[in-house]
Specification:
Number of helices: 2
Helix content: 25-40%
Number of strands: 2
Largest sheet: 2 strands, antiparallel
Shape: globular
Strand order of the largest sheet: 1-2
Order of helices and strands: EEHH
Oligomer: single chain
Number of domains: 1
Distance between the termini: 33 Å
Radius of gyration: 13 Å
Strand content: 5-15%
Mean pLDDT: 89
């Protein structure tokens, strides 16, 4: 089975439940809609869970950089799930 890497469009279909920047609540966001701080928090935590180290720069993290980090995880056997195109999760 061939390894299927993510595309830029897939960043709109990968949902993550993360802490809200301003409150104690959690938000269900796509990778594309996360703030840089939220993505930084998530990629470091997800990588750590799977024995990978990420040191994202402080500042803007562009979509291409996000995609490269996610595909690095995919190449290392980390499962990243995405919703089918045209489907939004309830919530």
């Amino acid at each position: 089975m061939a390894l299927e890497l993510m595309t830029l469009d897939d960043l709109n279909h990968i949902y993550v439940l993360i802490p809200n920047d301003q409150s104690e609540e959690r938000d269900l966001l796509t990778i594309a809609n996360m703030s840089d701080a939220q993505f930084r928090w998530w990629i470091v935590a997800k990588g750590k869970m799977h024995g990978m180290q990420f040191l994202p720069s402080m500042g803007r993290i562009g979509m291409e950089t996000r995609l490269n980090m996610i595909n690095r995880m995919v190449r290392n056997g980390v499962r990243i799930y995405r919703t089918p195109k045209g489907v939004q999760p309830a919530g």
